[in-house]
Design brief:
Blueprint lengths: L7 E4 L5 H12 L3 E6 L3 H13 L4 E5 L5 H15 L4 E4 L14 H23 L7 E5 L13 H21 L5 E7 L14 H6 L9 H12 L9 E5 L6
Parallel strand pairs: 1-2, 1-4, 2-3, 4-5, 5-6, 6-7
Helix pairs in contact: 1-2, 1-7, 3-4, 4-5
Length: 246
């Protein structure tokens, strides 16, 4: 049964991985979905076709979260194109891992621009367009809760910052019934981190379930938080990490 009929959603970074799975899952729940992508127009078209195949509107938008204007502008575009905006899913992100001494200022600026600044700007813009009872859901990382080895300082910094942002949004917007929550995926089988990759065995061993997750498993948590049963949940963190933080 569809639980989100008539709602309008924006998913940032929605052309692949967790973002694509989330966009399609929310469409299956009855939402019309706008989503952003940076480069791969063919992938975006594939996701749009999957959304339309379940009878919902699909609106892909080329936008780079590293650009402050795009980060906020995508929200305004989606709200105007769909006629409203009920749910924002902040999914776009980048990962730069490596020895501390190897990280350049350009790396720091890009990671913080995409993973932190863009989330703040999109959420700020969405606050002005969401109706009472709207939702802001952000994709964090298991590395905000546990950094299991060297090389993750910058990425962990960027994802940990989202904890404070989410709690602040929950307080700022709670009077309007708007919820803000954070989902922490663990190792998930995506193009960026495939289950057959060189470091996959070690990552899986860090989880209690000894396996990678799937994008659909993360999307299921997002769907719960976006749907009617999630309306009393706010300012919270949800680990979909196979026990990575256990």
């Amino acid at each position: 049964m569809s639980t989100m009929n008539g709602t309008a959603v924006l998913v940032t970074g929605g052309s692949r991985g967790i973002g694509a799975a989330t966009a399609v899952r929310l469409a299956r729940e009855g939402a019309d979905v706008a989503f952003t992508y940076v480069q791969d127009e063919a992938r975006a078209a594939e996701v749009a076709a999957r959304i339309e195949a379940v009878g919902r509107k699909a609106l892909p938008l080329r936008a780079d979260a590293a650009d402050a204007g795009d980060a906020a502008g995508a929200v305004a575009w989606a709200a105007d194109a769909l006629g409203r905006l009920d749910v924002l899913v902040n999914n776009a992100g980048v990962g730069v891992l490596g020895p501390l001494e190897s990280l350049a200022l350009a790396d720091v600026d890009r990671v913080l621009a995409v993973n932190v600044r863009a989330v703040f700007l999109a959420s700020q813009a969405a606050a002005g367009r969401l109706p009472d009872g709207g939702r802001i859901i952000t994709i964090g990382s298991c590395m905000a809760q546990r950094v299991p080895g060297p090389g993750g300082a910058l990425y962990a910094l960027s994802k940990t910052a989202l904890i404070g942002l989410t709690k602040g949004l929950a307080r700022d917007l709670g009077g309007r019934g708007i919820t803000a929550n954070l989902v922490h995926p663990g190792p998930v089988d995506t193009d960026m981190n495939p289950v057959g990759g060189p470091h996959a065995e070690g990552q899986a061993a860090l989880t209690a379930l000894d396996r990678f997750g799937t994008p659909d498993e993360v999307a299921a948590m997002v769907a719960f938080l976006a749907g009617p049963e999630g309306r009393y949940v706010t300012g919270a963190e949800f680990a979909v990490d196979g026990g990575h933080a256990a």
